[in-house]
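Friendly challenge for the regulars: who can give me the structure tokens for this chain first? No prize, just bragging rights.
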Amino acid sequence: MKKALVTGGASGIGAALVDLLRAEGCEVVAIDVREGPGITVADAAEIPYDLYDLVFLNAGVIGQPGPAWAPASDEVWRVNFHAPRRALQLLIPGWLAAGHKGLIVFTASMAALLPMPYSTDYCASKTALLALAESCLHELRALGSEIGISVATPSFTQSNLANELTGEFAEQFRGFIERGAPTTEVAQSMIDGAREGKFLIATHPNSLDTVLPHREALLSGAEPPRPKGRRMDALFQTKY
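First reply, four minutes later:
Bragging rights claimed.
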């Protein structure tokens, strides 16, 4: 029986990953700070070691919105970046010693490729997570390891990510999420992408259409264009 680990497994994409993997017959360790059926209540930074076949470092928080000059959120950085990095410290040395070839999938965000206004810590922590994954990949390959590293970049997905937010932004964001992609669809694309050996798993392929023009503007030295679309327009009209 294959073994899997999912952090943030009590809700949203994490819960969908757990359900899909268990339906396949996998033995799944599902970790979350919240209680739930089949959930091991624990912090995402302290995962149990094992020679897992699949690891989804999925736990994440968005943090209270505000401009880039607002106070930083230590909690967003702890959950979104430091916990996954700690997971690597707990898993990789043992896997290397055992010659294990498990797959590790980080849940980043489309915000790692296209920053979203008024969510500096979320966007920056997810961008850092993407960099962590790529650095880890190159370092593993330099050692001759075949451990798989993937990064998923979901856009708006039906989840409880905004449940703890307050104010006008929270209402806007909840609306985006309600119209987002189903969690099962996103989770399945993450599982499939990892098994296909993809590094970047674009769970919302249409969102990539806005990434290339943004990167081209950056490389040209020009100011990056403001994110477009009805959802982004609503964010700029929101009071913080």
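The beta strands are 3-7, 27-32, 39-41, 54-57, 103-107, 148-152, 200-201. The chain has one domain: 3-209. Your move, everyone else.
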